[in-house]
Amino acid sequence: MLTICSRNRVLYICNNSRKYASQSSNKSKIQEVKKNVSKEIKTYALNRYVNYIKNYDEVLESKFPRAMHVYRVFAVGIQDFYREMKEFVSIRRGGGAVQTLERKQLDIFYRMPREMKKVAPVLLISALPLANYIVFPLAYIFPKHLLSSHFWSLEQRFSFALQDHTNNLQYYRPNFRSMQQRISAVEDKNLQAAMNMNMILSKLASGVHPTVKEILEVRILFQREPFHLNCIHVQHKKNLLRIHGMHTLWSRNRRLEERAQEIYNKDRAIERDGVASLTLDELKWACFARGLNPSNMRSDDMLEWLDQWIAVTSHVDSSTMSLLLHCPVLLAYNNPTNRVLMQ
Fold first, then answer.
1. Are 87 and 108 in contact (CB under 8 A)?
2. Which of 7, 128, 210, 343 could make an SS bond with 214 (beta carbons 3.0 to 4.6 A apart)?
3. What is the CA radius of gyration of the chain?
């Protein structure tokens, strides 16, 4: 009897153990499934969140297109401005001769000081509490006057360059008249050069340009009387300053000399690399900077004109920098693209 009871109890315990083991196994499987499901849900939610954040700019752009456009303008502009400012500082710290710089380095070397001065007030004022809510919208509305070229689109860069060039062209004719008046001051020993200059001025008056050879024949007139910077009268200097996009208030000679040296150094860099190495955009900016409107001009025509310019300025030295400053009139006065803007 005891043996039977013991056997039944053992069977009961075994059955219960199997039952509990089965239940424990089922619970473990259920918990594992729940854990996997929870993990998948979290992973899915996290992936959706990451994708949402990654594409959040598109969401903002669809809801606030104008605000996002302003944001992109300043975000990209600041990056470009900072990159070129670092390069400018590196060039200055290098201490090498300006004449040894590459063409793009020269552009940054001469352009960045003007750009930094222009954008500095906006950046400084925007650092004041709440000032950025006023300054940035104003800068966006008036980018030409309050922002550097780093914040401009390609369309704006060309449009602003054309506006400035159109304003500069107003002073071509007064400069030409001043040259006509001053030619009478030529000394007898330079009579032949004066005669050649009269022929050049007659060509300009009749609607054509002198050749490179003809211009180089009158270089001596820009070394002394009548066209050296120390010899021309104040109004003539003011016209030259305006032709090159500068104000006329103070240090006229010094700023004209610096401007001539800048163009001369850039010309030598272009000459080293070859005019053909310029991209189309670089070719356009080079023409604008030297007094020619490149609008509606073929690239071959721009290249030919810039070749002529380089051919003249390659014979310029420190004593004839005034000739370089007068080249916009001598080489571009009657160009059809300029004449259209003068009318």
1. yes
2. 210
3. 37
What pTM was estimated for this model as a whole?
A: 0.79
Query: What was the pLDDT predicted at 65?
Result: 64
* Beta carbons within 10 angstroms of residue 17's beta carbon: 10
Dihedral sign, Cα of residue 204, residue 210, residue 215, residue 217: negative
DSSP structure class, residue 220: G
Angle between helical axes of 280-289 and 154-169 (0-180°, round to 10): 30
Whether 58 shows a pLDDT value over 70: the answer reads: no
DSSP 152: S
Closest by Cα among 267, 254, 272 to 315: 267
**Contact in structure between 122 and 135 (CB atoms under 8 Å):** yes
Q: For residue 35, how many other CB atoms are within 10 A of its CB?
A: 10
CA distances from 117 to 26, 107, 146, 261, 295 (A): 76, 16, 10, 21, 29
The one-letter code for the residue type at 124 is: L
Q: Would you give the end-to-end CA distance of the chain in angstroms?
A: 131
251: left (phi over 0), alpha (psi -120 to 50) or beta: left
Mean pLDDT, the chain, as a whole number?
84
What pLDDT is attached to residue 76? 84
Share of the chain above pLDDT 90, in %: 55
DSSP tag of 46 = H
By C-alpha distance, which of 268, 258, 265 is closest to 310? 268
- At residue 149, what is the residue type? S
Report how far residue 223's alpha carbon sits from residue 319's, in angstroms, rounded to the nearest whole number: 5
Q: What is the pLDDT of residue 24?
A: 56
Residue among 228, 236, 237 nearest 256 (CA): 237
- C-alpha closest to that of 332 among 294, 283, 299: 294
